[in-house]
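Anyone opening a protein record will find just a pair of labelled lines. With that in mind, the following record should read easily:
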Amino acid sequence: MDSFLEIETWYEYENFIEEVNLLILERPGYEVDETSFVQNLLRTKRISNFQKFKDSKGKIFILPIDPIEVTSTEIRELISNNEDVSALLNRDVYQFIKDQNLYK
């Protein structure tokens, strides 16, 4: 959501949003101003049915999430200290990090 709120600064955003669908993750502390360009964009492109999202382009789907309170920097530090971060990462991503001995 934080990046999406600045969509007007994206390179050729007008073309981009017509060619793809955007899945926006809600984040606490990032609200859409009712008078903003982003709000107008949501009025015309937001959908609430995910099936429509998969079968089209130029749509925006906002996914509510329950974010975890950890940063990527903190995860890398935990890994470098040989801490188990398996609960914080996708299983395949965690396995890749271990296999490649990353962040050590």
User: Anything to note?
Assistant: The chain has two domains: 4-63, 68-104. The first strand starts at residue 22 and ends at 25.
